[in-house]
Write a structure and sequence with these properties.
By secondary structure, the chain is α+β, with helices and mostly antiparallel strands. About 40% of the residues lie in helices and about 20% in strands. It has a five-stranded antiparallel sheet, sandwiched between helices. The protein has a five-stranded antiparallel sheet with strand order 7-6-10-9-8, sandwiched between helices. Strands 12-14-15-17-16 form a five-stranded mixed sheet, covered by helices on one side. β4 and β5 form a beta hairpin. The longest helix is centred in the middle third of the chain and has 44 residues. It is elongated.
């Protein structure tokens, strides 16, 4: 059997030339490369035989096929010998040119099971059509997925008998794969769209009909059916809030709209009240192929949580600004009489009564400033969890009496009628005496300040043994508390608006301190008021003990009543005014006082004078007070002296550091004279013991 080269290149083509000239093979003229192959092909081994012997019907269809630019093939005869044109070569791939004249089955054996039923129908006289038929072909040495759109048509010979079939086809593999890719991309887009954390929706047409939404959008508006509905129909409760009008404007103008933290009131559950949310969003117009707006893409975020935090921060900043303004006001109030009194004393031309009066003013206003600073330090320590309570078993009746005693001067000065309704039975609690007195006196002080002169104040103590609690209630006939302020009355730096008749003011930290200190005692505090002008009521509730209280320690003596004897005292402070004033006060009490303003001078003078007591500032210019104390202790002359740290630092770690440095006592500036005298009295007693 001749090989392919011999079939396509016969040894003697003189007869073919004669046939072409005579017109016997004119139907094979043209046809490009495949036409030339047919003319040169050795047909001796083909089931079709030589083209000069082909029936007219085959000649006709082959002539039409060769001169068509559409991919075509003809399968003819009982063995369906295969003929094709130039455009069909790409379909064959590497099967070309060996496929020419061979059996249809042998060429496409790998897809025969898929196409054979269609071939049978065509050979039975029925034209068939297949659109995008999937075929797994092997035309490049490997199996590959392909898709074809084609038709099989029967071809009859001169006698009318079906002798073969004819196919016109087009490969649509690239289009199908491109569409599949687009579908996959669209599916990925839909998945991303659906899973996006931000709200997304696509609205179509001038009525803004919902075409697509994601879960975040449905979560925002409540899981309701909105696809296919217009915005006004789907979200009727949004009418009047401006959103529908914005959609209309964007659709008409084609200009996008960007909204920031815009409020939206929406009914998220059927029958529920409207819920306010805040949105950042964009309305982006969607344009069709002609550039006309056909819809709107909605994208945004629910920023309600962020908006609430920002509002809280703004409110906190306002409270801070108000607090700083109040602090400046409260500090200027006592400073004014202090400066006036000091200037009066500086003139040096007054009688003893004027001097005494000016001194009392300075002392009183300085004490007021000290209270302000102590409140600030207290609230700082409480909010940072640095307060340690020294708890004892106490009778709250005694605590209340001490608090009333503290506030009595203000109550009397404003001519208030104070009514005490005591329980008539012990009210035992476990607490810090100083802090509880501070809390109750703070509440009483507020009642006195915010009640017009001649008002009424009632203090009630009630013991509920069954529930194990004791309640202290302070009621007044004062200005009351506005309903909008009442929920925040115990917040730090919160204070109702000042009016000229309420000039006492305050820093807005007292009630916050009350709440924190009562909480540290395991109790609660509540405020009630019917409104402005209706008075106020504050209730403190503490756990009650069944055991009787321990005997209360005796109260400290009044300032100046402790006899400290006569001591050699050295004051060391780089604040010249503070050092000289303290020295003058101690000298008036009969002590021999020397003053130094730095650590170096103090060390030299202490070795020479051997003072009994040294009052040392911590923040000195050449070395700190802790190092100075250690060096004094290392001097044999001063090893037994009483060292007192006098500093503005009063936290627990400051006291510990002072003890480690060798200090015997730690006093916080400005030190109470009674505390100073008590320290000096202890130093005097110690000196007598040593002298024996």
């Amino acid at each position: 059997m001749p090989d392919d080269d011999q079939r396509t290149r016969p040894p003697d083509d003189s007869q073919d030339k004669i046939d072409c000239v005579s017109g016997a093979l004119m139907f094979l003229s043209g046809g490009g490369e495949v036409g030339a192959m047919m003319r040169a092909h050795d047909w001796s081994a083909s089931p079709l035989g030589h083209p000069r012997d082909w029936p007219q019907a085959l000649r006709t269809v082959v002539g039409l096929m060769l001169n068509s630019k559409f991919p075509m093939f003809v399968a003819w005869g009982p063995e369906l010998a295969f003929l094709y044109n130039d455009s069909y070569r790409d379909v064959l791939g590497e099967k070309h040119p060996h496929a020419l004249g061979r059996r249809f089955h042998d060429i496409w054996s790998e897809i025969w099971d898929d196409i054979h039923p269609l071939i049978e129908r065509a050979l039975a006289g029925e034209a068939t059509y297949a659109d995008r038929l999937y075929l797994e072909m092997n035309r490049h040495g490997y199996d590959e997925p392909t898709w074809f759109t084609f038709s099989y048509s029967p071809v009859r010979d001169e006698s009318g008998r079906i002798a073969g079939m004819y196919c016109a086809c087009v490969e649509v593999t690239e289009q199908v794969l491109a569409e599949k890719y687009r579908e996959e991309e669209n599916e990925r887009f839909r998945a991303l769209f659906e899973q996006a954390p931000g709200i997304m929706a696509v609205l179509r047409g001038p009525e803004h009909v919902f075409e697509l939404t994601n879960q975040s959008y449905l979560q925002l508006v409540g899981h309701r059916h909105i696809i296919g509905k217009s915005a006004r129909e789907a979200l009727p409760e949004v009418a009047g809030q401006g959103f529908f009008e914005l959609l209309d404007r964007v659709y008409t103008s084609g200009e996008p709209f960007v909204g920031h933290a815009m409020p939206l009131r929406v009914q998220r559950e059927p029958g529920s009240p409207l819920e306010e949310r805040y949105l950042d969003f964009v309305y982006q117009p969607i344009r069709d192929a002609n550039g006309e707006v056909s819809g709107i893409f909605v994208e945004g975020s629910d920023v309600t949580a962020r908006k609430l935090i920002e509002d809280e921060l703004r409110a906190a900043n306002r409270q801070k600004d108000q607090f700083l303004a109040m602090l400046a006001h409260e500090l200027r109030n006592p400073l004014a009489p202090i400066m006036t009194a000091a200037q009066l004393l500086k003139l040096g031309r007054h009688d003893p009564k004027s001097v005494s009066n000016a001194s009392e003013i300075i002392a009183r206003q300085a004490a007021h400033m000290t209270d302000l600073v102590n409140d600030l330090l207290d609230v700082s320590r409480v909010t940072r969890g640095l307060v340690t309570l020294e708890k004892d078993e106490l009778d709250l009746n005694v605590i209340v009496a001490a608090a009333v005693e503290q506030v009595r001067p203000l109550i009397d000065a404003r001519r208030h009628a104070l009514t005490l309704q005591m329980s008539g039975q012990p009210a035992h609690v476990l607490g810090d005496r100083t802090r509880l007195v501070q809390v109750i006196s703070n509440i009483l002080n507020n009642a006195a300040k915010y009640t017009a002169p001649g008002g009424r104040i009632v203090l009630d103590v009630a013991v509920d043994a069954d529930h194990g609690r004791v309640t202290v209630t302070v009621s007044d006939s004062g200005v009351g508390i506005a309903s909008e302020v009442l929920p925040y009355i115990f917040d730090l730096f919160t204070q109702a608006e000042r009016t000229p008749d309420r000039s006492q003011g305050g820093l807005g930290i007292g009630l916050a301190l009350v709440k924190s200190l009562i909480a540290l005692h395991g109790g609660t505090v509540h405020a009630h008021s019917a409104g402005l002008g209706q008075g106020s009521q504050f209730s403190l509730c503490l756990p009650c003990l069944a055991a009787p209280p321990a005997r209360q320690p005796a109260a400290a003596g009044a300032a100046g009543q402790v006899d400290a004897g006569h001591l050699r005292v050295m004051v060391v402070d780089d604040n010249t005014d503070a050092a000289q004033m303290l020295a003058a006060l101690l000298e008036v009490q009969g002590h021999a006082v020397s003053v130094e303003y730095d650590a170096g001078g103090a060390l030299a003078r202490a070795r020479a004078e051997r003072p009994d007591v040294l009052l040392l500032d911590i923040g000195l210019p050449d070395m700190d007070g802790y190092e100075l104390a250690r060096r004094l202790r290392s001097q044999p002359e001063n090893a037994g002296a009483t060292l007192v740290a006098l500093t503005g630092y009063g936290q627990h770690q400051d006291r510990e550091q002072a003890g480690q440095a060798g200090f015997d006592h730690h006093l916080v500036k400005p030190a109470d004279l009674n505390q100073v005298n008590e320290v000096l009295a202890q130093a005097e007693a110690r000196r007598h013991v040593i002298s024996r």
